[in-house]
């Protein structure tokens, strides 16, 4: 069994990871999509898309 | 000879040894290893025998009732107004974004959802964010042809509404293994853990067992077992399944393909617990026509429902749904449109009708202050 202090730290790390996932998941998909797409769309569309997803937060 | 004398009893040999087991074990130069090699021979004989049965893979446990689910309209039904605007940005690898609007439903509040999907041969990534800031996500990673790891979840800013599930599927020659962890917490390993196996017994019949280990906190835990059976006809035109869970929950389904275009399905769900006894039977049919799909369904709670998806053009389809609850004297109606735009040329960029509609709906519904920048961006994109 880990000590109370370690547990506290794990809980904090999990919460932090969840927050990163919450706000970073869609930008991550858009980033992956844009870098891997064929043909690669222009940057301005990427920015527009990111903005339209950002508007929700 | 050298091959069978090798101490490889524990490793899985992919191909059976061509040697006769008696000959190889007696000629082994190491008496200590002879038991090991006879074990490996036994294993090889067993796997050769198993291979000679030529049993098919039974499919995953998750997809046990897949055909029934895709025939019934329970998972497709909606009411009120709905619009899905999809923009395909790349075909291979697939990359698309979706704006979904829902309005006027009797059961759901009006909502907007932004979704993004990326998929290539091995990876599938999907995410959706609704107007309340709830994220739903799905990610699949295929390691080899038979190994797939899946993550799915829902993350909400509200406490207690988040769910994250990790899953691994292994599909063997004639069996499927599945392991799931729902909300595992690394601090105390609380959560729900599910392990299951589905094994083909004959060419038609597959049997399986799934065990659920629930551990809401470290002081308590509970194990439940459920049993699965699936019978597929030889021509794969009909499938019957049965599932029994430990709480007295039984489900039996039957699906049949009547012709190329017509599929019918029946589903019976029963709860025969100590405190509660209940059952629901559902009958449904699906017609696949050239440009449309029609689903109709009748269930024992008195509900009659239907859904028509009509595709007018490759990029535009229209949906109408309706449900009448005869016992409660209530009715629901839904109308939806799905517009898809693919702008793979830079000229179309930012100025397709769907984009304009999306843009204006954005402006009208959500965010008056950003009218100018969004508009300016679209114009400059053109």
UniProtKB/TrEMBL annotation, chain A:
**InterPro entries reported for this sequence:** Tom7
Top-rank lineage group of the source organism:
Eukaryota
Keywords, A to Z, come to: Membrane, Mitochondrion, Mitochondrion outer membrane, Protein transport, Transmembrane, Transmembrane helix, Transport
Membrane topology of this protein = Single-pass membrane protein
Pfam families assigned? Tom7 (PF08038)
Q: Where in the cell is it found?
A: Mitochondrion outer membrane
| Recorded family membership | Belongs to the Tom7 family.
Name it: Tom7-domain-containing protein
UniProtKB/TrEMBL annotation, chain B:
Task: Tell me yes or no: is Thylakoid among this UniProt entry's keywords.
Answer: no
Q: Which Pfam families match?
A: Porin_3 (PF01459)
* Polar residues bias spans: 1-13
Top-level taxon of origin: Eukaryota
Q: Where in the cell is it found?
A: Mitochondrion outer membrane
Q: Which UniProt keywords apply?
A: Membrane, Mitochondrion, Mitochondrion outer membrane, Protein transport, Transmembrane, Transmembrane beta strand, Transport
Q: Where is this region: Disordered?
A: 1-32
What membrane topology does the annotation report for this chain? Multi-pass membrane protein
Q: Where is the composition biased (Low complexity)?
A: 14-32
Q: Which family does it belong to?
A: Belongs to the Tom40 family.
Protein's recorded name:
Mitochondrial import receptor subunit TOM40
């Amino acid at each position: 069994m880990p000590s109370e202090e370690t547990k506290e730290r794990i809980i904090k790390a999990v919460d932090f990871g969840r927050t990163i996932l919450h706000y970073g998941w869609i930008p991550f998909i858009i980033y992956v999509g844009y870098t891997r797409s064929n043909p690669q769309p222009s940057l301005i569309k990427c920015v527009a898309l990111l903005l339209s997803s950002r508007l929700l937060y | 000879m050298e091959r069978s004398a090798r101490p490889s009893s524990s490793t899985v040999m992919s191909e059976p040894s061509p040697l006769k087991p008696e000959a190889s074990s007696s000629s082994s130069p190491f008496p200590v290893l002879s038991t090991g090699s006879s074990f490996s021979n036994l294993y090889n004989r067993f796997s050769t025998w198993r291979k000679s049965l030529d049993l098919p893979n039974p499919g995953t446990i998750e997809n046990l009732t897949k055909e029934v689910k895709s025939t019934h309209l329970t998972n497709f039904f909606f009411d009120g107004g709905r619009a899905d605007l999809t923009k395909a940005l790349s075909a291979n690898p697939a990359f698309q974004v979706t704006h979904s609007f829902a309005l006027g439903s009797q059961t759901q509040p009006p909502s907007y959802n932004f979704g993004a999907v990326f998929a290539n041969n091995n990876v599938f990534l999907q995410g959706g964010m609704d107007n309340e800031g709830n994220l739903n996500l799905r990610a699949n990673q295929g390691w080899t042809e038979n190994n797939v790891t899946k993550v799915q979840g829902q993350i909400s800013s509200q406490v207690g509404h988040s769910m994250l599930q990790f899953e691994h599927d292994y599909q063997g020659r004639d069996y499927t293994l599945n392991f799931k962890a729902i909300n595992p917490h690394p601090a105390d390993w609380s959560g729900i853990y599910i392990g299951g196996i589905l094994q083909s017994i004959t060419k038609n019949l597959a049997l399986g067992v799934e065990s659920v280990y629930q551990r809401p906190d470290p002081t308590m835990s509970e194990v439940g077992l459920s049993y699965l059976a699936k019978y597929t006809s030889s021509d794969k035109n009909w499938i019957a399944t049965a599932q029994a869970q430990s709480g007295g929950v039984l489900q039996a389904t039957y699906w049949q393909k009547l012709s190329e275009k017509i599929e019918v399905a029946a589903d019976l769900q029963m709860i025969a617990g100590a405190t509660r006894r209940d059952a629901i039977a559902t009958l449904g049919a699906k017609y696949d026509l050239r440009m449309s799909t029609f689903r109709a369904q009748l269930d024992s709670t008195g509900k009659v429902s239907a859904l028509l998806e009509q595709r007018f053009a490759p990029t535009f389809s229209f949906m109408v749904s309706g449900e009448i609850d005869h016992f409660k004297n209530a009715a629901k109606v839904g109308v939806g449109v799905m517009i898809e735009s693919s702008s793979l040329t830079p000229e179309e960029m930012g100025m397709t009708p769907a984009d304009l509609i999306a843009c204006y709906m954005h402006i009208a519904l959500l965010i008056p202050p950003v009218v100018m920048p969004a508009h300016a961006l679209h114009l400059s994109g053109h």
